[in-house]
Amino acid sequence: MAHVPVQGAQVVGRVAALLRIVSRKPEGAALVEVVRESGLTRPTVHRLLTSLAAEGLLDHDGTTGNWVLGTEALLMGSVAAARFPVEDIARPSLRRLAEETGESAFFSVRRGGETVCLLREEGPFPIRSFVLHEGVRFPLGVASAGNAIMAFLPKEEQEQILARWDDHAGTFAPTHPVALVRDNLARTHHDGYSVNPGLVLEGSWGMGAAVFDAQDRPAWALSLTGIETRFRKDRQNFLGRFLLEEAHQITGRLHSRMT
């Protein structure tokens, strides 16, 4: 039996990819968008989406025509949330960051070659950046959270990603040339926190700090985003120290839960 290939493994991979695409935005995704991002044919995508809807994992929004997550996905997420209580662990730090800095604060997790935003807390400053919200994914090394995490990965792992950077970064590659990414990673490792000078969206800046798991690997990140004038050099030291303090506290809380 050990030599018999797993039946349906390709289908499972395709289904997982479609779920990730749909879950990137609260409003879901149109069929044409799912087809483009998945690289699958339109009939295949439609058949899989329809099957997922029949199981309750997806819904088809009759108003927008988008495919969105269904109630079964909500139930599964609730069970997963009980196992990984990031809300209890990270929310206090997010609130302090948002209230004290005025900016939007986020908690993201590494998932393979991506970072996924899990939590968001709004600060009182009236002008905000909406580049990031719950469910948004970025390639590792892109945006402040992904840069903060990648900077503290083992050098060999960094080089594996950088060696295929254009494919890895996808549509972000033109604004994130590999030489610039290398410089940003080195600076982040030296300072302890990352700075994204409007590379994802012009005028929208961000800063991030890695949160480490029980094996001292960067697995999550805290970040702040806002308009460029709020992230000038004279304020970066304050924001960076604040991020590092809160990231250290979350790391400690996570370690105590895991031991």
From TrEMBL:
HTH iclR-type domain residues: 9-71
Give the GO terms filed under biological process for this record. Answer: negative regulation of DNA-templated transcription
At the top level, the lineage of the source is Bacteria
List, alphabetically, the InterPro entries matched: GAF-like_dom_sf (IPR029016), HTH_MetabolicPath_Reg (IPR050707), Tscrpt_reg_IclR_C (IPR014757), Tscrpt_reg_IclR_N (IPR005471), WH-like_DNA-bd_sf (IPR036388), WH_DNA-bd_sf (IPR036390)
Which Pfam families does UniProt cross-reference here? Answer: HTH_IclR, IclR_C
Query: Keywords for this entry?
Result: DNA-binding, Transcription, Transcription regulation
- One GO MF term attached to the UniProt entry: DNA-binding transcription factor activity
* IclR-ED domain ranges (all copies): 72-256
The answer to whether keyword Transcription regulation applies is yes
PANTHER family the UniProt entry points to: HELIX-TURN-HELIX TRANSCRIPTIONAL REGULATOR, ICLR FAMILY, TRANSCRIPTIONAL REGULATORY PROTEIN
Q: Write the protein's name.
A: IclR family transcriptional regulator
* Highest classification ranks of the organism: Bacteria, Bacillati, Actinomycetota, Actinomycetes, Micrococcales
